[in-house]
TrEMBL record:
SUPFAM superfamilies: Glyoxalase/Bleomycin resistance protein/Dihydroxybiphenyl dioxygenase. It comes from Georgenia halophila. Gene3D superfamilies: 2,3-Dihydroxybiphenyl 1,2-Dioxygenase, domain 1. It holds the Pfam family Glyoxalase. Residues 2-123 form the VOC domain. InterPro entries: Glyas_Bleomycin-R_OHBP_Dase (IPR029068), Glyas_Fos-R_dOase_dom (IPR004360), VOC_core (IPR037523). This is VOC domain-containing protein.
Amino acid sequence: MYIDGFSGFSVDDTERARQFYADVVGLDVTTGAMAGLINLHLPGGGEVLVYPKGEAHTPATFTVLNLVVPDIDATVAELSSRGVAFLHYDGEIRTDDSGVHRGTPTLAWFADPAGNVVSIIERDGEGT
């Protein structure tokens, strides 16, 4: 029935998003087929469409993208050195001083320049 699929989310400025996801996060990012669109190429073959909404953009109130990493502490340190500020939670989900929730799974969250929430999730190759 289906031949393919992909996810997408909006931003207020796709050029700023392109620079962030390519230069800071380190993903392979290409310009979409239509003007103003970008594609995030994920390790493992997935793809995410990022599209502009300009001033009409409202950041998602949920995680829009999850990136799996083998070592969360090393990834937090690397992204922090590139200017990424990790989100801190002190409710049912709690994070430590570096912004890492050390539970099952172990993960951390940060916002992209448009305010959308992205997570990194540690996986050791045996599952999440």
